[in-house]
Amino acid sequence: MxxxxxxxxxxxxxxxxxxxxxxxxTAFPFFYMVMLSxxxxxxxxxxxxxxxxxxxxxxxxxxxxxxxxxxxxxxxSAIIAVASVAFTLLISIPGAYAVARLRFFGRRQVHxxxxxxxxxxxxxxxxxxFVLFTMLGLRGSLxxxxxxxxxxxxxxxxxxxxxxxxxxxxxxxxxAAIDGCTRLSTIWxxxxxxxxxALMATGLYAFMIAWNEFLFALLFLVDRRDSWTVSLGLxxxxxxxxxxxxxxxxxxxxxxxxxxxxxxxxxxxxxxxxTAGAEKx
Amino acid sequence: MSRVRTLRQQEGRAGLVLISPTLIITLVVxxxxxxxxxxLAFQDARLINIRxxxxxxxxxxxxxxxxxxxPGFWSSLVNTLVYTVAGTALSIAIGxxxxxxxxxxxxxxxxxxxxxxxxxxxxxxAVAFLWETMLNPQYGIVNTWLDExxxxxxxxxxxxxxxxVPVALLTVIAFxxxxxxxxxxxxxxxxxxxxxKELDEAAVMDGATPTQxxxxxxxxxxxxxxxxxxxxxxxxxxxKFDDVYLLTGGGAGTEVVSVRVYNFLTARDDIGASAAQAxxxxxxxVVFLIIYLRFFGGGERDQ
Lengths: 281, 303
Hints:
Chain A: This is Carbohydrate ABC transporter permease. Chain A is mainly α.
């Protein structure tokens, strides 16, 4: 057998195996997560190796949502995420438009600033912000956290939106100007309707950052249980012995599900956005 | 001002007005705090006396000498380096294999692709807790498959085939590779699918075997994206806090510098020393980046 046909056969056999391995390694943990969340803790202790619960229960979800306060955590996370998305878009749309279309002093340097912010380690930033928020009494308030998230996402979203705005033909904007549109109304009536996919992708990116973030939530909110986000809540409760693991697993499903739904509802948009703007993480 | 502005001047002003919200928030929340962090690193600052530590306070190098001579600092720096290099290399290598395997269409590709992306988009707290549970020595499912349970996340050293291995550190690295290979996968797959088909076909005509085509046709076209990915993953992993903190809390020989920074800040309430460590971390990172760009640079500059 020639080297060529040997290699062809080898790779033809290897490829399904690799694909299967990748699928199992990524899908199995999440399958396990869901399966653990619908059984009683007793069952897990007695039969740790079983994958399929003998009796299904949703009490774990009721417990985690009400007794452990995940409803409150979800409300906080939702407030933070929605506010971050709204303000990120509000700030980055004019910014991206300026960088894409208008020649102004310092336009070239702006890119450098954004790249620096994007690559900048959050842990260095955490120290002065922790001190500042402690001094201002903003620890425990959601507003401080929202501010930090906006600042962390805006450089990336400006970049993502700019790339898209540049594809909007300039002649359309000129036509709008001749018809009497001011610059702002051109953005509002012409550029934004044409950029809906990019706006969606940008908004979802900001949502994911705000929903998933952990370090700043830990630093700013840990003292006040009422303001915990879902991420922070799960991480804090994971250490306690009183709460059964299966209940906490239900908490992880509650934490993961919104993101997975959001992601797959818009996967196409988002992967394009991610490779264009590469999520920080 | 009665002077009439030219259109060009108006454009310049409009540009500045539109970009100013972006600039203000990055200045206020990123740039100014960064400068303050540098100042804090040279001051004796604690939460109790922070109001008295002014801009013109006493500057000292004490934090740095203290931090460097503290036990555990150098080992945490070594841990950070091992964790970063291994995590980066593994996640890119697996991402490359995954991208090559999923390059061509097959039934169920969408499902597999979606599944591969989940570890990356899922919240870090959820996946860390999931790993902790799966690796738990008492009821974790992974340990039910083994003859002897292994405390993956709490055991600093263990024996494997007669060799001493850092168990917890390796587990954390595996987590890193598992969680971030989708990131490399996305980038490399996008690049692979943009490659011109003709080159590959020409190589087939010339009688190149699959490995030869990979080595001489595909890889040369992927080096730039891999170099870029290496820089990105290195930068992000080097200062990463969440993953190690959530998995081991920095115990069992996995303490990385960012976890130390956090502990100094919160548990010890030593802001100055915490800031000093963060600055050392950032400086080491910059040094590595400069060395990297010196040796491998050029290609990714125009990306």
